[in-house]
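Morning!

This is the sequence you dropped in the shared folder:
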Amino acid sequence: MKKRTARSPARPSARQRILDTADRLFYAEGLRAVGIDRIIAEAEVAKMTLYNHFKSKDELITAVLQQREADVVALFEKNIDRHERLGKDRLEAFFLALRDWFRSRGYRGCSFINATVELADQTHPGSMFAQAHKRRFFDMVSQIVVESRGEQAERLVPAICLIVEGAIIRSVMGDRAKAADTAWEAVSRLLPK
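The structure's back. Tokens below.
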């Protein structure tokens, strides 16, 4: 009889290790503070391997932001769905998901706001991606508002997004979960009864 051996999980590809390492370091310490040599060392890849996947640090920054967007959207959808299953409407569930995010381990704000501020150049590919992300975020909030409160509430989306962005900034400055609760309270007052 052939003996079975336990398989260890497959190691992520070199490209994925670079992305994951860069994402972790950029988010924790900032885009400009983290150098390529550190990413190479922590991802355990050769310099040539990094440059075979990403032509420059700027290209890597943009790829990290693209991955971050997919991860954030998936996390929000998962948490919104969880709160809806607990009886909340979709808009309130969104604010509860926001609070969950603010409370998450290692939270350091919005990668897209951080990147835009740190890069400073509005024409940098990372800045342009961050701006496009915020337009997609606005569209997502708009859809949630309409689904939850009807088309008459759609006119409030710019104010709701401004409140959410303010809560994100406030949460980094020390309010954490309270910022999401305050934002929900403010939005609740704006909504038609």
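Headline: The chain has a mean pLDDT of 93.

More detail when I'm at my desk.
O.
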